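JOB MANIFEST
job_type = single_chain_structure
chain_count = 1
residues = 637
[input]
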Amino acid sequence: MDKNKIIGFSLIGVVLVAFWFLNKPSEEQLQAQEKARVEAEQKAKAQHDADSINAVLKKQQLADMKAAAAKDSTTLFFSHLTPDSAAAKTVTIKNKNVEVTINTQGGTPASVKMLNGYKDFKQNDVKLLSKSQMALELRNAKNERIMLSDLYFTPVDQTDSTVTMRLYADADNTHTLDITYRLHPDSYMTTFTVKASNMAQYLSSSDKSLYIDWQDSCLQQEKGYKFESRYATLTYKEKDDDTDNLSQTSTDEKVQEDDDPALDWVAFKDQFFSCVLVGQNDFTHYTLKSEPQAVESQVLKTYSAYMQTKFDPTGKDVTTMQLYTGPNDFHTLQDHNALSTSKKDLELEDLIYFGWPLVKWINRFFILYVFEWLTSWGLPMGIVLLLLTILVKVIVYPATKKSFMSSARMRVLKPKVDALNQKYPNKEDAMKKQQEMMGLYKEYGVSPMGGCLPMLIQMPIFIALFNFVPNAIQLRGQSFLWADDLSSYDELINWGTDIPLLGDHLSIFCLLFCVTNIINTIISMRQQNNQMSSEQQGQMKMMRYMMYAMPVMFFFMFNDYSSGLCYYYFLSGLTSILIMWFLRKTTDDKKLLAQLEAYREAHKNDPKKLSGMAARLEAMQKQQEMMRQMQGQQRKR
């Protein structure tokens, strides 16, 4: 056993053993698991049977088309219904980043393989679109459907990075339909065009649309299925507007309504990779759908997008689309905007969700650049997260200290607050007691709300990193201590059986995060107790229980989260403990009380006015007292 594992085991010790025995599934839970497994198998079998029936029907439909075509050799693209070989062939184009495989049946991409070192959780090269079907459709002169997915294209003019997939309308080979692919150098972007040559007499002059039916099964690429699934979503960009997405957790569908804008692009996205179909012309009449799948299938979601774009049957104008198949890296996506064949600002970088507007800007213009700067040093990612934590704590330290000092001032004034509680022990005197208490705070220049604002300032950064770390592709595959991949959960302990609410493993970084959270809660509760009266402490009893319960809830929530995120939160909690210890050691309560007494003496003729929330609270108390007095006078009458 190496030292990293020894470190991990020593950190969990008896806690792990106790947790294991306390959380063994009951007989009822085991029966529920077995029932769920059987239902999943039945659903998978039903889907397989349905797929088989559909395949038979499609095969019969194609056979019928061929039989009809055999009777009428003038059928459009007759020769492409009966290929030389019964099996479809593939052709490939590639650059140093990706290899795009195109199927001769249908003439559309069959798969895309990453060539620059990206591996899935099984250590195979990452493949995208391997379960995809992109069917293109036109209308003929009789306004009948031409299903290009049923036709076999002939590859022509092929080079390493380009190929044209061609259909011949008749025997003289002068009437053609071409789909030409060009893979841009050193990129993940493929531009493809659909062009008709001398086809005006064959194609509909009234229906100038190319119909696109794109379906894909988003395969699991990362070890943590549940965590990856949270970030897998069908995303789209509306014309002259922002990006949006379908639900990550449930089946969702969007159908274009009359007042809905057209789309610039549609993306089938997982946590770290995306397949984005971009239209030079708008995508209209669209229907988008996303459906989550069972864990056992190793398919995160099934996506579908049915839409239309402009097509010129005369061949004067070509229909141009682009396909981005690559990583969800902010700057990579941003760079690919420049490859757009239209004048549109694609804003592909918005595929990475950095949070709500305020949080988003913190991530995009601060956290991202600091993280990349630290990463450029070539340090292990665990050290990068450590330095990021320290830097963030240094930045928020003034607010942390201000919050602490506000609590410390309240603490040293506690004896005077206790004296007021003894002076007004009855409930009917509560308003007088509150007014005198606010007057006391004014005399000493202390605001009871002074510790709230600094804490609120820190929250956006805390939330920003919650959104940033799981989207940082730089953490993918990076190991640190016992974690073999900081973008997924660490599983030093894995018992192979799924336990409700917990899963099949124990994340040590998650456990450490929760332990430091409990310690910070204890410190926070002690600070509050030191500045509250006994009566207030009694009122806060239920709140304390809730605060202590939160770390336990966090454990079940974060056990399957990325180890990098749990590691960051552990470091953040640990540094918070050290900062609180340092501030407590360097704060002399006697000197602080003397400073407050000196302030009171210096400002006894012009006491400090409360501001902000404290002032509003005082005003509300005065208003309530006035109302109480008026009600008392009315009762006497």
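[summary]
The chain is about 45% helix and 20% strand.
The chain has two domains: 72-353, 360-478+563-618.
exit_status = 0
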